[in-house]
Amino acid sequence: AGINTDEYYTISVEDTGAGLDKKNLNKIFDRFYQVNNLNKAYYGSTGIGLEVVKEFVELNKGKIDVESTLNVGTTFTITFPRGKDMFEKEDFSLKPFKKEHFIKNFELPSIEQETAVSVENAKKEQTLLIVEDHNELRNYLQNELKANYKVIVAENGKKGYDMAVAKLPDIIITDVIMPEMDGLELCKKIKSNIKISHIPILMLSAKAMVSDRLQGIDSGADIYLSKPFDMKILKSSLSQLIRSRQIIFKNLYTGIIKEGTQNTTTVDLKFIQKILAIINDNISKPELNVDFLSSKVFLSRSQLYRKIKSLTGISVNEFIRNVRL
């Protein structure tokens, strides 16, 4: 419904859905905020839409209000001022508006475009895999993190797992609720595969209950962040995950600690302990090198290199040399 006067124009949109509790009304315009348990069967929401609407309305000097009653419905009311008196001169574009230009620039990139490796990306040392089914959130994360990482993306857990095996990323961000394979199953599969079990995982979810966090950690996630999240905290968490993982495993062969207890999987601990045992048992043999170790643990040279590098921060040859010393 619309109301038109000389001073303003009002648009109201009303539904007869589940409605909202009053305590949630002042939060629904926050980025990534989602009402917990509103509809567990629906995974099509990102928590971005209302924030975008609010920003667009305010950019045009308008305001948006919401009224809601549980089990009755919700009404959104948008009010725009008429005329140009509310705007400054610099608010107006000097270029003529072209619909074709707007639509072209508004289109979201395809998965193929997102995964294309640029020359700039190739120079970055660490690879970040983002597994997220929502285009808006996936693109937001990619744009925020591409300055520090070579970013690759997948739109569901199944493709994310396949990409993790093929690309061996240094770290993974995953959503929880996704089609085909959810984030919990993805974590479990990654942490049970010796080739990729070393990769740290940061899990993002709108589910903020303690039980939800425990479920995420138990599935293998190293860090569980609830939406809405602060991008500075997310960036810091990523860098800390990589650094702390390397410190833990460096300590293993220097004898500082004997057991890993800091978000380290049993699979990775057994792997490092096996590597150490092989090196110590063959320490005097001249053939002890990367190829020798690869054959003993049934990994290719590249897989062994990426796993040792990710866990310890050094190459396989450096690892062997340090143990010998």
TrEMBL record:
Gene3D superfamilies: 3.40.50.2300, Histidine kinase-like ATPase, C-terminal domain (3.30.565.10), Homeodomain-like (1.10.10.60). It is an enzyme of class 2 (transferase). GO terms for molecular function: DNA-binding transcription factor activity; phosphorelay sensor kinase activity; sequence-specific DNA binding. Residues 1-84 form the Histidine kinase domain. It holds the Pfam family HATPase_c. Residues 273-325 form the HTH araC/xylS-type domain. Its EC number is 2.7.13.3. InterPro entries: CheY-like_superfamily, HATPase_C_sf, HATPase_dom, His_kinase_dom, HTH_AraC, Sig_transdc_His_kin-like_C, Sig_transdc_resp-reg_receiver. Transmembrane segments: none annotated. Keywords: Kinase, Phosphoprotein, Transferase. This is histidine kinase.
